[in-house]
Design a protein that fits this description.
single chain; five-stranded mixed sheet; 3 helices; elongated
Length: about 160
Amino acid sequence: MDGRLFTLTKRGFCEYCGLKKNVLVNFVLIRVRSVLSAVNMKGYKKKLGQWGEELALKFFEEKDHILIEKNWRANLQKNVGEIDLIFTKNKDLVFVEVKTRTTNAFGYGEQAVNYSKKQKISKTINHFRTSNEKYDDFFPRFDILVIEIFDLTPKYIHYENVEL
């Protein structure tokens, strides 16, 4: 998957602005963080999460997954659960949690899917399956996709069939 944010020449310079790759990477990351965090931290995290979900959608579609739901929410006794992306592939019903990071300073993305988060996701998956009987003959699968955006090219770390 070509997820580059900029096109570089053979010598490592940006075709648009002419900056060297390492200078451009630092400039872009500092600028993006400052602009988004100027809004507020909650807004920054939301925008980053939305961007990550769009990248994840492209990632799974390129692997022949068919999107059936995005940000599916279930009201479970005042405890709302959400599944970021739900796909089908062959006879698999794939539930995806997307974690997007621009730094590992606060932990890795997969660490954010802890025991309590998995319990909530499990309840939400069960609610989805009971609400959508047309997928009864599909095998449920839970995946985590971590997207690390530390430079110009996002890095995808796909954990398939994670135990809940």
